[in-house]
Amino acid sequence: MATRKRSGRKSATRKYGRAAGKSVERAMRRRKRGTLRSGKSGRGGKVKSRKQAIAIGLSEARKKGAKVPRKPGGSARRGSGGAKRT
Fold it and tell me: pTM here?
């Protein structure tokens, strides 16, 4: 029996869950209305950027426990913490 060669595509698993999509959708609507604010408990300014609205929606979905991939980072993301000493 000959084996079939697979194309370079991944399996059809969803990267983001449906709840995550709904959360982003809500955040986008709030941005359009002008009620979406950044920062802890909306202390920051009004969100105008589309990308920032998506990030806030995904963050809220992550807090609720929806299927959202982890943020990239960890130990590789940390910098030296300031200016270099000479």
Answer: 0.65
